[in-house]
## 1
Amino acid sequence: MLWDQGAAGGIELPVCRTISKILGMPVDLHNNQVIINGYNHGRDQHHATAIIDRLHTTYIRRFDVCDPVLLVTGADLYAGGSDFVFGLARRSYGAAVVSTARLHNGYYGRPDSDDDLIDRTSKECAHEICHLMGLGHCPDPECVMFKPETLDELDRKKKILCASCMAALDQVAGRGESAPE
Ligand SMILES: [Zn+2]
Ligand SMILES: [Zn+2]
């Protein structure tokens, strides 16, 4: 996981630990060196696809990174026909981006809370990493792989994968029951 200096500061470690707990796998944390591009003046937003493209060419391909890479940024993101996205993953690149811009209570005029921000960022990051591992969306509104359209839908999710998504992750990660002897 690459943490950009423009992203919410001071929550990196708890977010990293929470993602690791949700997925049941270690998550490395690094300071981001990749330039956040794709700024659109008219929208005052960044194009998520442009950020992923740059992450791919200037980091993943350049340094031959094999593990999924997730960049956390403070830049507000859009993609495709959406007004905004919390995050976006491109599996073929092994790259994803998550924005903390709309995960703050302050964005919605509510009192800020680090706990809320850590919860939301962790769920969003775990969601995109699962996409990079090959998982799709889940109809269970409490599962991390449910696709939230609003902050309330993101908040309704629990910090867990449902049984079937966890089984799918176990399978792609090569975990689970060992073969009978
Ligand atoms: Zn998704
Ligand atoms: Zn699920």
## 2
Amino acid sequence: MTIKYMGLIIDGKGLGGNLQAQAYEKQVLTLLKRIRTTLTGRALFRELRRYRKHIVRIRPSETDKDIGPNQNEARSRAKDWKRAMARNQPMLYNDGSPWAGNVSGTGRGSDTTVFFTPSGYGYPLTVLKSDQAIIAKLLCELQLAGAQADEVLFHELVHAMRQIRGLVFLGLLRDGFQNEEEFIAILLTNIYSSETHRPPRSNHLDLRCEADDTDAVFLPELNPPTYRSLTIGKLVLQQQEMALEIGAVPADFNPIRQYYKLERISRVNQKRSAWAGTQVRGRNRNSHLLPRWGKVPGPLSANWHRRHRHRAAVHRRCQGLIKNRR
Ligand SMILES: [Zn+2]
């Protein structure tokens, strides 16, 4: 028996008996339902469903050939890595070294399996609002940011989502993020954690958290570009619908929202200076808002000369009338 939820297949087969398999499936289902109570989680499920021609299966860690029986590990394994990797990008291993023969991915997307066992992680409890700050502090002190079962599952589902879309690129990154895919998985999981009042995780190598890791500290500006702004910019371009949905999540830590904000500011500045360049002469209604160099005096138009000649003629005629009257 397997359980199907939001297009995902939960399959506890290989856990000894039927009862164990059923218990496993129920535990995973509870976690998925919990994830779906959040806005970030709903955006992730919607993105998974947009590409539902590929199957995502969730199976116990113990059934993966590379994860030992007592290992506390989770991973997402694409069925066909060539299809899971980004189109025309070199296929790389986790450490950034290229595959034999320097092959490129096709970006067609692949079925994938998430190997994950909830019992290896702390179970997310329902915390009273008044206790949320204390629990967040405790998680930081114990260095357990992003380590609860639902957060680990969310992280793996992000990997799975990138694999079914055929967007995986394992380019190396700094600051312990290891590669672009881990950066994206940690970024989105951190927004989920923040939405559920838990601290964001600092990097992929450990489970520390940074108390002041708000989106403004994480992504202060777009220029000069950093690996953070470039990778978020890439994600926003590749998965526009999901990025817009997650960017609207009112979590304390939300660098996607910050990215859109900075982009909007720089776009307004660009527009403003481009418009200022077209204003050649004189004051207009908004000229006090523009930078000073925007008000460059330009040549007077033919229309201005015609109007000026007409006014001069009228003036002369009036003067003549006044003279004659005297
Ligand atoms: Zn990962």
## 3
Amino acid sequence: MLAVCRIYGTGARSALEIESIYHYHSGLNSTGRHHPGEPFVPLCKKENRPMKVIAILLLASSVAFTQAAQAEGNAADGAVIGYSCLGCHGIESYHNAYPSYHVPRLGGQKRAYVEHALRAYRDGSRKHPTMAAQGGSLSDSDIENIGAWLEQFGTATDAVTIESVAGIDAATACVACHGEAGIGVVPQPPTLSGQHQDYLKVALQQYREGSRSGTVMSAFAATLTDEDIEAITHYYASRPGVFTPATKN
Ligand code: HEC
Ligand code: HEC
């Protein structure tokens, strides 16, 4: 719990990133009463809130966002465009060439995250030559259709709690966003459970070294040691969660 407060309080930048992600408008005190305008980070720093309260805060902020209408998208059209994607994402053993790591599993991944990732590849804020080529020419409606299509596979949830990560100290900071609270957060933190371990490792290393940036994750990965990354990714990868969609679909 101390680690979380330390991360949240590491400076204006991480606080700002978190706020810009969640547009946190109102504070809640420990009894859940509203204190509009009370800033999120000082609340944590000042009163040293336990992790659970932080999770509740994030959950509360997410409730408002789940109400925001999501573009519909047409799953049938998405399946047509998505067929070519399965040439890589539909093959369980498929690897990125260099550095070598598994192509991420997309089955069950949260729709808002998939759409967010595709837009980031398209506008260049997330850099990856293959995916820039694959996603670079997709229109907004293509992206929404792909989101609708992937959602049909069923959304996997990260039913990860503070109790279930007991023993992996560094993972307690992740639960508030990637655990149950993450289900409703927009842009939704991706489901980590069930993802290939080598892919998760590369993602965390990239956040840590800054080559995958512009997101709240840079702040959370910054303090992780190699041992933390090994333990956390092993934990998530060995749980049920996202999966490789069948090529037939
Ligand atoms: C030639 C192989 C290949 C093809 C074809 C391909 N991808 Fe990818 N995709 C990758 C690789 C490799 C990554 C990991 C890139 C990275 O590390 O950022 C990736 C990452 C992604 C991600 C991010 C997943 C995450 O967990 O962050 C999404 C979403 C995605 N691809 C969607 C698609 C869609 C939609 C298509 C079809 C339009 C597609 N991909 C076609 C190889 C491919
Ligand atoms: C404040 C919310 C928040 C917290 C806390 C958080 N994350 Fe994230 N995480 C996100 C968001 C949002 C993204 C998507 C960012 C992007 O598009 O690159 C993400 C992305 C990721 C990814 C990339 C997954 C993929 O499919 O590409 C990994 C791995 C990850 N987080 C691991 C962690 C770990 C490990 C921790 C704890 C040390 C953690 N996160 C804490 C919000 C959070």
